[in-house]
Task: structure prediction
Amino acid sequence: MAVLLEQFVNIEDAKSHLGEIVKPFQQDLNRRQKRLDFIKKCIQCIEKNDFFQLDELLKSKQVAEVLKDASLEGCASIFSQLQARADEQIELYKSEFKKGLVQIAEKMELPMQVDLPRFFVMKGIEGEVNFSARRTKLGELTIKSFDPKRIVSMALNLKRKFYDAVFEPQLFINSLFTCYQEIIKKERHEMGDAVPIQQLYADYVWSLQSKAFLQNMDKAKFKGYNVEQFAIDFWRFFNSDVSLTEGGYCIRLAPGRIKSLWLIDQMGEKRQISHASFTKS
Result:
């Protein structure tokens, strides 16, 4: 039994030692495989004429890893030529893309400013194009495309949703003031004290609900009101002829990053707002 046990231990030791011996070879093999995969990806991008993805690859840290390999030193010149070609094609494509986007927007009578990769429609409606990932983000929406027609169509829908609906600035500020009064009463604060903007927003959304919903809280009857609309309604209020509540109170927005909301202030700037208050004008 003792002999068998000794043989078993020796076998396990042998296995362990062989594993240590082969480890550097395996690590080197893994590094070589990663370099090979990288070059294959570059070839695929060239075949697909995908210069955006190629540009992303050529600017990654993996290039340095490839060029460390003496057997792949010939890649340096090729990578340099490919980068120059990618830069040329990307600039050409972006120029044509911007021109097409502006033309389609003008045709649809949609105001748009383009400063790629970002574009701006109206206050509160802005987006960004990610060419390498082939997707466009517009507000809270994301589409897996950067087709100018789809972008303009999506922007137009948001413009209709946020700006074409009837907006009554006096009713808006009066309703916010009512919510503010209820909060300071419940929290035993004084008039003029600041309240959390998230709490004011939540109470305001609640005030928009119908009696039918409050009697039977079926989600189908809930009236949605997202933060984007809240921000734009603030801008529409600040941009209107109304500045005070009917009782003569003025709203003040306080910037802050903790528990804040992205809103549009009196100057039309998008800022992180953490608190709001009303003071007698």
Notes: The beta strands are 113-115, 118-122, 125-130, 135-138, 141-143, 195-196, 249-255, 261-264, 270-280. The longest strand covers residues 270-280.
